[in-house]
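Team,

Forwarding the record for the chain on the shared tracking sheet. I've put the sequence and predicted structure together so nobody has to dig through attachments.
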Amino acid sequence: MSATASTSTTQTTPAPLIWPERDVHSITAVDLSPAVPDSVRPLLPQLRQLAALGDALRALQGLDGSFTNEEHARLLADASARLMHEIADSDAVTPEQADLIRRRAEALSELRHDKEVAYDEAALQTPQPLTVIAGPFCTYRNKTRTPLHSVIIATAHEQGDRLIASLDASADAVLQEANGHIGTADVTADSPFAMLITDLIHMGGESNAFPKHFCYFLPEDEDAGFGEKGNKTILFRNVYGLRHDYISKPLGERLIKGYAPSSDIDVRDVLITWMRGHDIAHSVTTPRAGKVGPKDVGHEPWYSLQEAIADAFGTAMALTPTWLELAGCSADDLVQIYLAEALHYLRRGPWNWSDAGAACVELSFLAGNGYLDVADNGEISWETARVIEGVHALCAHLERNVVSAPDGPTVQKLLDAYGWREDSPIAPVVRAIRSDLSGIPTSIAYL
């Protein structure tokens, strides 16, 4: 954390409010109910204390990472480090994870950022009974680009990891099947980064601020770029499901006409299947891939389109029979859950966030081309077959005009057509979310 420590720490800049511009925001507290292994249970008091110390240490930081009182920060950091050494000595921790925890503890006690630990954490790609990360993390780029102190404590989820293994084993064939429907025969994707499915036990510091993430990309989110030793996504299965239960599902029930996914599906498996497709689709490319980039259309708009590409191709993969079977759901179920999740992202403000901008592009394309119908009150009428057809058309459109775009104006034309504007085909949806549905939580807090 060398870049974040300061000896002149009498004043810092407070964090800005980064919610979408709305009149009402609400937070619902939820019980994470993690599946904690018996070996980890004796550590729960120390883990809870470590997360609380993380909240306190982050509270002493400004947006530039400097501390309002470095003496107090060192006391909190030392107390955190002592706990981490106790945890590392437990039989519940693998030797590989124990080594990482001890190295993180040493760096924390010195208020420095050890990026080598971040690289080694990302390279540890086997499920861990207990993962403990404590150190500088980046969460929201438009809040600050400086890594701020965070604590993340999670345990492996065996069912989720088995699902990822099955998805990965079939990914190449599934992408080719999706290409057949889309008409993009030469679209390929690089081998995906590892994805570990976990249950979140505790979170502290910057990661515990709002809105919260349901996954992190390592080592990138530790402000260490991409790792030469490996990269991985760590996804919190319980958090992902709770976000859906308390935010996406209520939005779907209010705005998606006839919203009723099957009651016997495990929505968390459906979400993970969709997310794995999204993760893989972030690397789609073609031999015609252009050289257009953020400099041509702006940083946030460009990354909105990158998220839209991942969403569209990932959804196309999830809609194949192979992945529907692995997810344990029907195409009807997946379409409804996809639309509800898009509403969840849309409510963050498509003028503010790349993820929300992506949801705007996707829903605007579907509504603007007749694959969805949007009423004046924001209610969405849909048919499964038409949405699937629209997703395939969206993939083809994004491949042609973004992935393989010959120049900046081609990309800008797509943004002008489907990016946010006041007369967007989905403007009634945004209005409904911000007014009539403002009582639906904006984010969740953890008990």
